[in-house]
Amino acid sequence: MNQPDYNLIEGLTEENQHRYAKSGLKEERSAEIKVLLAKLMEEKKLFLDEKTSLPQLAGMVNIHPNNLSQIINERIQRNFYDFINSYRIEEFKRLIALGKNKNKTFFALALDCGFNSKTSFNNSFKKITGTTPSEFIKSL
To answer: 33 vs 26, 59, 60, CA distance in Å?
Structure first.
């Protein structure tokens, strides 16, 4: 599966420097957790479970949920839900390209990818890809 294309930043934005000034999270630890997080998402496909939560994921990487949120916000420049949904969208794009899924509806595939509503799927798809699912399919 392709990892979502994140706009990673090298340094912190001024807003994040102020926002996380007292967090105590070390740069090296933050980088390690980002790598571990990507590995977990790729290998375990945690995004497929619609109940995946920030505290649950934080427990898996042995870090406080606030620090995990900081890492996702700073290093990936997304909030937790957009982070998870970007993996779901990539999975949807992978599944829709498979011939065996031609008879499935978009919503059925979205459910298979961890979304729990048609609205959240459509909104996330448009937000993350800049296009609607229908437009995406036509472009294939």
So the answer is: 11, 12, 10
Q: Is residue 130 part of a domain?
A: yes
One domain, residues 65 and 104: no
Q: Are residues 91 and 61 in the same domain?
A: no
Kindly report, residue by residue over 44-98, the tens digit of the pLDDT.
999 999 999 999 999 999 999 999 999 999 889 999 999 999 999 999 999 998 8
d(CA 89, CA 133) in angstroms, rounded, equals 10
Assign residue 117 the CATH number of its domain.
1.10.10
Q: Which residue has the tokens 């479970």?
A: 49
Q: How many CB atoms lie within 10 A of CB 108?
A: 12
Question: Measured between alpha carbons, how far is 73 from 44 in angstroms, rounded to an integer?
Answer: 22
Query: What does the alpha-carbon distance between residue 81 and residue 29 come to, in Å, rounded to a whole number?
Result: 22
The model's pTM: 0.81
Q: Are residues 61 and 102 in the same domain?
A: no
| Whole-angstrom distance, CA of residue 18 vs CA of residue 37 | 24
